[in-house]
Amino acid sequence: MSSSTHAAVRQPAPPLLTLSAVTKRFPGVVALDAVDLTVHAGRVHALIGENGAGKSTLLKIVAGADRPDAGTVELDGKPVRFSEPRDALNVGITVIYQELSLVPQLDAEANIFLGMEPARHGVLDRRTLAGRAREALRTLGANFDAGTPAGELSVAEQQLVELARALARDARLIALDEPTAALSHLETERLFEQIRNLCARGIGVIFVSHRLEEIRRIADEITVLRDGRRVFTGPATAVDDAGLIRHMVGRDVEYARLPSAVPSSDQPLLEARALGKGRSFADVSLRVRRGEIVGLAGLVGAGRTEVARCIAGADTLDAGTMTLAGAPYRPSSPRDAITRGVVYLPEDRKTQGLVLGMSVRENVTLATLQRFSRYGVILLPAERAAASRQTIAVELRPPEIERNAGTLSGGNQQKVVLAKWLLADADLLIFDEPTRGVDVATKAELHRLIRALADAGKAVLVISSELPEVLALADRIVVMREGRVAGELPASAATAEGVLALALPAAHAA
Amino acid sequence: MKAPRAARFGVPLALAGLVLVAGVLIPGFMSRANLTTILLHVSINGIIALGCTFVIITAGIDLSVGSVVGFAGVLTAATLTSGAVLRLLGPAGAAVAAGLVGIAAGAAVGLLNGSVVSRLGVAPFIVTLATMTAARGAARLVTGGVPIGFPDPGDPLYGGKVAALDALHAVGGGRIPVPGLPTGFPVPALVMLALVAAGAFILARTRFGRHVYAVGGNEEASRLSGVAVARIKLGTYAISGGCAGLAAVLLVGQLRSGGPDTGMLYELNAIAAAVIGGTSLFGGIGTAYGALTGALLIGVLNNGLDLLGVQSFWQEIAKGVIILLAVLFDVWMKRADARRRARAGRT
I need a labelling partner for A25 at 20 to 30 A (CA). Which of A39, A164, B226, B294 fits? Predict the structure, then answer.
């Protein structure tokens, strides 16, 4: 429900911010495709969409951190062009990212004025600084000391510091990227109160969130993005939750369903019971059988990668037990997990999957080098033969094993990582976002390769934020939400709407 | 992985060019005796630089090697002139024991560095800065601040001690007769060349060497691939310390004594040689031959400027400029690499 006072602000005056046909391309992907967005002064415009729908890119363009390839940005009806974030800040646009950007060692007031400190001849005017910082914090109802180092404040308090910083800069538009993700119920209520106060002062707000219930309470308008396109814009009152989910899921990206060719075994290869780790996840139980692909669905931050890393020995569990082929399994390191036949293909190939400076051959054999060496000396012919065989098996194009891995495209890099683990002949393969940043044709190839692994009797766990991919690939889908298993669906009964409904966070329990 | 192509050929070419220019301009530079002298002068730095190269490829740094030369050197000299060791093993045996003690002392400091870096996760710069200070202090403590190795003629074991010093001198200061080379070929230079060949083989052809590059190129990817990252790092620091220990043994042999202040600033010369030779301080890139060419480049430069009678102050400035150029070259290669990658990613 939007506060009715906002309606009075509506005038024929030009909107505060207008994006028209904004397009942004990255190598191999169109992140934003001719997107329009209009934000009015004193109103909250919610932006929703699945992971990868283009919300972050849109925010970056509004913030001046990215430049659009096409389209225009207008402020008060006048076109503006930002070449760096500073330009956007100077005209009153502040974007508050999920990862807060405070300097933890500096106190709250120093953070508020960071980059625009009041000074006389280069000497800080401490009194003015402190006075104005305190006033901005008081306006926001903050009840902590402005002299506290930012690192000692809670997330909610840090958000207030960011908001105070926006106020101190006379912001006219504030964009908040999932601001409630780390807040308690009470903190969320307080934040909403402050957002309404900001609106009453004529500030326009862009609010990005996955929580439909919250959006319903705070937003005046809603825009839904899907695959870089705007699929819906309208007043918050004009659409219900089911309608929003339908818009978010859409229908146009579909992959050929690759059914299992062999029946999966009855006994689970991996059985995990009540796994938990710190604040990342708790009480996660799942089983993966040979010949089966289990999809792990959920929103970014639901804890899927954290669970996978613990299964693969990259991180250690706090709670729970696992068995592998019936025997107790608790890996102390990736090395340990690999010797037990469990391998992990990380989400970020460049920083975790490959040694970019090394050749394809050296990357492919990195995990299995002891098989191609005697007394510690590498047997080059054997290594070359194995690397060639594997690169052909994963259809690397061109299958040049001496090429530098850093010069390959995203899809080819993923194939090199896959080749490395095919060589290791593992029993359980965990794929984390296997096709992120990969072109459509290569995606289909990777899907085929993953299915072939399962058909060859491997157990496969696939994490993907792309619902159509999970639906096409998995035999069974486990959905995680906020660190817990929200539900499990057999592939035959799963729909995109069903999975998303499980993945979206519920309203805060009071 | 090897250095980028330009670095692989650029530095040897620069070295060849420098030798040619010096040969034309400086009378006596190209004489066999002078070239042999350069090799001898380069050998200590070359051996230390080779060890450091292993560490730097893992994106680490070893600042302790200079102090290790002092520390291992005084232990070597003390063993060499110890009455008990001499009585037990005789002069030749004492020389062997002293050599082993020196290498072991260096490797032990290296193992300490490596353990703290890899198990406790402390930054290599800090860890080796600490052992650099401590090893120097230990060397001074052992000796009371004065060099060891000058037997008292009144000592009943005087003859034996001199014989032991002579035995080690045969290695550290010895020459192998070579036809056509009146001065003979210096043993330390031979040791350096043999070690560089061994180092090149280890880096290029063994599993340990491959893992050294992998850890330096991407530590997290290596860990996730099952590489025993901690063990690999430990190994590189042990090699670095061991090389410094061996350099100390050769120096004690050469000088017939071990001084607590020997090896001051050697760490910086060694790191300079490695970097000039194309080893990247960012990790993942470097070769054993690079350490050799880097050390040779510095040696040729010093020798040439010496022969020209240039003040040593100017030599230091020249060396500084060359180090800066080498590092700029490294950064420039990185950028070119990144550009190439960006282009490849777009296609």
Answer: A39
Flag whether A334 is in a domain. yes
Q: Tell whether B221 is within 8 A of chain A (Cβ).
A: yes
Looking at the structure, give the CATH architecture of the domain made up of residues B5-339.
Orthogonal Bundle (1.10)
Count of CB pairs separated by less than 8 Å, A with B = 95
Mind listing the pLDDT tens digit for each residue in B80-114?
999 899 999 999 999 999 999 999 999 999 999 99
- The verdict on residue A447 lying in a domain is yes
Instruction: Give the model's pLDDT for residue A211.
Output: 81
Chain A nearest C-alpha distance from B248 (Å): 29
Q: How far is CA A211 from CA A216, A494, B263, in A?
A: 9, 22, 65
CA-only gyration radius of chain A, Å: 25
| pLDDT tens digits for range A170-194 | 899 999 998 887 787 788 888 999 9
Q: List CB contacts (< 8 A) between B218 and chain A.
A: 351-352, 354-357
Minimal Cα distance from A413: which residue of B?
B345
Could you state, in order of their start, the residue ranges of all structural domains in chain B? 5-339
Burial B277-286 (b: 16+ CB within 10 A, else e): bbbbbebbbb
Cβ-based burial of A253 (10 A; exposed 0-12, middle 13-18, buried ≥19):
middle
pLDDT in tens, B108-139: 999 999 999 999 999 999 999 999 999 999 99
**What is the nearest CA distance from B193 to chain A, expressed in angstroms?**
21
Indicate the helix (H) or strand (E) that contains A79: strand A78-80
Q: Exposed, middle or buried, B104 (CB in 10 Å: 0-12/13-18/19+)?
A: middle
Give the range among A148-152, A504-508, B57-61 with minimum mean pLDDT: A504-508
Query: What is the residue range of A367's domain?
Result: 355-425
The shortest CB-CB distance from B214 to any of A346, A355, A373 is to A355
Question: 41-60 in B: which are within 8 Å (CB) of A?
Answer: none
CB contact under 8 A, A407 and B344: yes
Pairwise CB contact (< 8 Å): B207 & A377: yes
| Selected residue of A311, A344, A369, A432 to mutate for chain B interface (largest B Cβ count, 10 A) | A369
The string of DSSP letters for B80-129 reads: HT-HHHHHHHHHHHHHHHHHHHHHHHHHHHHHHHHHHHHHH---HHHHHH
Question: What is the predicted ipTM?
Answer: 0.84
A431 and A326, same domain (yes or no): yes
State pLDDT tens for residues B165-193: 999 999 999 999 988 888 889 999 999 99
- Count of domains for chain A: 2
Contacts of A314 in chain B (CB under 8 A): 223-224
Which residues neighbour B33 within 8 Å (Cβ) at sequence distance 6 or greater?
B182, B183
Q: Determine what percent of chain A is predicted with pLDDT higher than 70.
A: 94
- If asked whether residues A419 and A433 sit together in one domain, one would say no
Residues A439, A484, single domain; the answer is: yes
Average pLDDT, stretch A329-343? 95
Judge whether B200 is closer than 8 Å to chain A, CB to CB: no
Q: What is the reported pLDDT for B39?
A: 93
Per-residue confidence (pLDDT) for residue B346, from 0 to 100: 41
User: Mutation test of the interface with chain A: which of B224, B330, B333, B346, choosing the one with the most A Cβ atoms within 10 A?
Assistant: B224
> Contact, A132 vs A111, CB < 8 A?
no
| CATH label of the domain that carries residue A440 | 3.40.50.300
| Chain A CB within 8 Å of residue B231 CB | no
Put simply, the answer to whether B225 touches A420 (Cβ < 8 Å) is yes
Instruction: Please tell me the predicted confidence (pLDDT) of residue B334.
Output: 67
